[in-house]
Write a structure and sequence with these properties.
Elements lengths: L2 H16 L6 E2 H10 L6 H13 L5 E3 L5 E4 L3 H25 L2 H4 L10 H15 L2 E9 L4 E15 L2 E8 L5 E5 L3 E10 L5 H7 L14 E7 L1 H9 L7 E5 L4 E7 L3 H9 L5 E4 L1 H16 L3
Helix pairs in contact: 1-2, 1-3, 1-4
């Protein structure tokens, strides 16, 4: 394991131990936990790692001067982002070990996502432009309009959805928010001009009540979906969205409620469940699904 890999593993374990309960943990408790995981670091290194968590991952880690207990006083999104980062690292580390151990262990892993050259080539420069608040210019292909055009945007966010990467940003001459697939970006240039991230909070919150990327101008509403009890078990273990809650439950049906924008991706997800999911509310979404099913049925007459 490289030095950087050891550091990331230690960071993940520190966050895990501090975040176990609202009381947090003392240095001694954290160090004991690290040692049980065969991670040995000095007090000075521990303090340096805390600084890394605070400034690199922007986690609000505090130490009570009276109890000397460390706590993470932060919002859910930053903790979720940190957890996702560590999860990605653990996955990558598993792959590294598999590759190192030869063909037999490699046969135990199967990956679905495959990123094309455009995504692999564009991911790092797009991230760099976001981190440095620099304008980004590129040529982008619009599949629906069958056109290719040149854009310059203020990039704010890299977002992965359905095994694809997108950059979210605003145009330089307006505050219109747009998303662009990295797989359709060519001739990418990081400009020397910088910009102020005045729309960062708005863009980060834009996807809180969305499945996918299509935000349109619709407002979120209460969405209720009914499924059989067997399907409900899957949804309870793997929620469709963070707002998921059980609205009612019987022996024959479980109704989940969500606070979501009824966008294209939500409708596509519902249709993907077929007869195992029924829209209860809102009525506009019920009607939309009915119309789509009628159009689909027309293909088979």
């Amino acid at each position: 394991m490289t030095e950087n890999s050891r550091k990331i593993r230690a960071l993940a374990l520190i966050v895990e131990r501090i975040g176990r309960n609202s009381r947090g943990a003392t240095y001694e408790e954290i160090n004991e936990f690290l040692e049980r995981q065969d991670v040995l670091i000095s007090r000075r290194t521990f303090e340096r790692y805390l600084d890394s968590l605070r400034y690199d991952l922007m986690l609000d880690i505090k130490c009570d001067k009276n109890t000397y207990r460390y706590t993470i006083a932060d919002d859910d999104e930053r903790l979720k982002a940190a957890a996702h980062f560590f999860q990605l690292f653990n996955t990558a580390d598993l792959v590294r070990k598999s590759l190192k151990n030869g063909a037999e262990t490699r046969s135990y892993l199967s990956f679905e996502a495959h990123y094309g050259d455009a995504v692999k080539n564009n991911l790092e420069p797009v991230y760099q432009a976001i981190a440095e608040s620099r304008l980004l210019s590129f040529t982008h292909e619009n599949y629906q309009k069958q056109t290719t055009s040149r854009h310059t945007i203020k990039p704010y966010l890299l977002k992965e959805y359905n095994a694809k990467w997108y950059v979210i940003g605003t145009f330089t001459d307006s505050n219109e928010i747009r998303s662009f697939g990295l797989d359709r970006m060519q001739n990418l240039t990081i400009e020397t001009d910088t910009f102020k991230k005045t729309e960062q909070k708005k863009i980060n919150s834009l996807f809180d009540n969305l499945i996918g990327l299509v935000y349109d101008h619709e407002k979120p509403c209460v969405v209720k979906l009914a499924v059989p009890p067997m399907q409900a078990k899957y949804l309870k273990n793997n929620p469709l969205h963070a707002s998921q809650a059980v609205d009612s439950e019987t022996d024959s049906e479980v109704i989940f409620s969500y606070w979501l924008v009824p966008n294209f991706e939500l409708r596509r997800l519902i249709l993907g469940y077929g007869s195992r999911m029924r829209v209860v509310a809102p009525q506009s979404l019920v009607d939309s699904i009915k119309d789509e099913l009628a159009a689909m049925l027309g293909f088979y007459k």
